Amino acid sequence: MDDDEIVVEGRARDVLGMSMRGGKIFIRDKTGYWTALHMKEYPDKKPVLVIGGITQDFLGEYMAGGIVILLGLGERPHNQTFIGTGMHGGVIYIRGKVDKLQVDISEPGVEDRKLLDKFVGEFVENFQDWS
Questions:
Q1: Alpha-carbon separation of residue 50 from 65, 69, 73, 110 (angstroms)
Q2: Is the pLDDT of residue 131 over 60?
Q3: Which range is least confidently modeled, 27-31, 66-70, 106-110, 115-119?
Q4: Which of 54, 73, 76, 89 could bridge 64 with an S-S bond, Cβ 3.0-4.6 Å?
Q5: What is the pLDDT of residues 43-101, one digit of tens each?
Q6: In Å, how far from its chain's centre is CA 40?
């Protein structure tokens, strides 16, 4: 995926967003294994993936750029393993507590919160009518 937007009113399976280079994907529910595998950004393009639920193992493996937001709505806490294995760019935001795994964990700063407000706001707009 290089551009545009995809909205999924349900769940997605394995390898969602593989090699994504731009655009936005909003998933209402959860995703499978290898979500955001090898996502990469360019100076003029930044892929964004917002997931309402949780994912399985290998989230953001070999990620080289882009933004992943994992909201964990209505689900048990995210407790899968191998988050960010081989990751060397981009950012993954996970709602809730996560044990240190393959990458550094830090609290979001002011700029992070602005970014989260923008994309979580778009998520809410896309799914405001779901029950």
A1: 15, 5, 12, 19
A2: no
A3: 106-110
A4: 89
A5: 899 999 999 999 999 999 999 999 999 999 886 767 778 888 899 999 999 987 776 66
A6: 13
One DSSP character per residue, 65-87 reads EEEEEE--TTSPPP--S-TTTT-
Which residue intervals of the chain are DSSP H helices?
110-126
Q: How many CA atoms lie within 13 A of 21 on its CB side?
A: 5
Burial class (CB in 10 A: 0-12, 13-18, 19+), 42: exposed
Other Cβ atoms closer than 10 A to 59: 30
Cα separation of the two ends of the chain? 29
Q: How far apart are CA 131 and CA 123, in angstroms?
A: 14
Residue-wise pLDDT for 98-111, tens only, equals: 766 666 778 899 99
